[in-house]
């Protein structure tokens, strides 16, 4: 049986998001900031008359906060709520067999927190993203 994955790029790393979580991919530009929100929460965005929380994946990984402006976001649903995950690029939806394996290299703390393992596609390793963990943010916030 094949599982479907959306291939994205985050912080220069190609990664796979389980397609079962993905609703759509959109361009977002007018994101309202949320005062006192954790650093990985970029703000709020209105999509088809619904307000959703936009997650800054760069900040969640421990990097600098993303700059304001037009961005690509993967709209995901977790526990009945919609979220936007900011990504650098969206590639394609692919079908892959198999289970994720352990990474062959040491991952940074951010990637280690958000990775469910590595999938191989055309000889290229793709980190499998734990969507719920990415939304929850860094461990010190999730505790």
UniProtKB/TrEMBL annotation:
InterPro entries: CheW (IPR039315), CheW-like_dom_sf (IPR036061), CheW-lke_dom (IPR002545)
Organism: Rhizorhabdus dicambivorans
Domain CheW-like residue range list: 2-140
Alphabetical list of PANTHER family matching this protein: CHEMOTAXIS PROTEIN CHEW (PTHR22617:SF23), CHEMOTAXIS SENSOR HISTIDINE KINASE-RELATED (PTHR22617)
GO biological process, one term: chemotaxis
Official protein name in the record: Chemotaxis protein CheW
One Gene Ontology cellular component annotation held by this UniProt entry: cytosol
Membrane-spanning intervals of the chain: none
Domain of life: Bacteria
Taxonomic lineage: Bacteria, Pseudomonadati, Pseudomonadota, Alphaproteobacteria, Sphingomonadales
UniProt cross-references to SUPFAM superfamilies, sorted A to Z: CheW-like (SSF50341)
Gene3D superfamilies: CheA-289, Domain 4, SH3 Domains
């Amino acid at each position: 049986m094949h599982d479907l994955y959306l291939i994205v790029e985050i912080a220069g790393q190609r990664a796979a998001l389980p397609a079962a979580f993905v609703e759509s991919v959109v361009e977002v530009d007018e994101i309202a900031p949320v005062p006192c929100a954790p650093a990985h929460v970029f703000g709020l965005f209105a999509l088809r008359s619904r307000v959703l929380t936009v997650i800054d994946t760069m900040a969640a990984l421990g990097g600098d906060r993303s700059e304001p402006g037009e961005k690509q976001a993967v709209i995901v649903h977790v526990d009945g709520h919609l979220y936007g995950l900011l990504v650098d690029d969206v590639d394609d939806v692919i079908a892959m067999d198999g289970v994720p394996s352990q990474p062959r290299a040491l991952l940074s703390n951010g990637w280690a927190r958000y990775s469910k393992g590595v999938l191989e596609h055309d000889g290229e390793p793709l980190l499998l993203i734990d969507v719920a963990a990415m939304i929850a943010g860094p461990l010190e916030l999730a505790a």
